[in-house]
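Good morning,

Attaching, inline, the backbone tokens for the sequence recovery test we're adding to the shared suite. The designed sequence is right after.
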């Protein structure tokens, strides 16, 4: 069985943990979603630094997308989606949390749901939060990911370019090539289910959420 005692691929001093600039996020949501694969999602708390490589995301297009939280307009709960790109949008689901990256401009309330990361930093800390020593159970799925990284509603609206508390960085620059990205329908939604807006890092299937047949390229 897989345990948390997996070696980190590179020493911490060789990782680029500089936050991606706001300009990275202020582009069309599909472009940002694809380019988030391979980047590192990082969370720093008083207990330490934890995170890993983003391997699965979904794009939500905004008012024209029935599956998007912004479809019916702005509310108190989804207000962060109406910010300019580079903010966090954190919302509850079944007493858990989901983390999204807001993209584009204030006129386009779109976001990328980060569904899974490959855990690489702070494994013991993530294991403690998740209550498991199984590596593959730490951050496979948006709710598990948020629990492992202690992401909750208090980080809704957070500036992801701040380099504090919660941010996304280049990491080890292992960004997948075009042929290493599978594009499939989104998971767990009731509307616009056939839209090809889920992007996954092929070769990292063990860390992806959902049944294995959902990882096959449908583009």
């Amino acid at each position: 069985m897989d345990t948390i005692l997996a070696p980190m691929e590179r020493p911490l001093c060789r990782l680029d943990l500089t936050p991606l600039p706001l300009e990275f996020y202020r582009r069309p949501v599909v472009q940002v979603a694809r380019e988030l694969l391979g980047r590192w999602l990082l969370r720093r708390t008083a207990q330490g630094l934890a995170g890993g490589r983003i391997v699965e995301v979904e794009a939500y297009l905004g008012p024209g997308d029935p599956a998007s939280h912004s479809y019916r307009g702005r509310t108190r709960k989804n207000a962060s989606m109406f910010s300019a790109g580079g903010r966090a949008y954190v919302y509850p689901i079944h007493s858990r949390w989901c983390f999204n990256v807001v993209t584009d401009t204030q006129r386009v309330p779109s976001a990328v749901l980060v569904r899974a990361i490959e855990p690489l930093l702070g494994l013991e800390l993530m294991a403690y939060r998740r209550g498991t020593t199984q590596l593959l159970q730490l951050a496979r799925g948006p709710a598990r990911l948020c629990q492992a990284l202690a992401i909750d509603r208090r980080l809704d609206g957070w500036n992801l370019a701040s380099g504090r508390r919660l941010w996304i960085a280049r990491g080890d620059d292992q960004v997948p090539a075009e042929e290493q990205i599978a594009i499939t329908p989104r998971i767990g939604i009731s509307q616009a289910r056939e839209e090809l807006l889920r992007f996954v890092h092929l070769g990292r299937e063990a860390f992806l959420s959902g049944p294995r047949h959902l990882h096959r390229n449908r583009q």
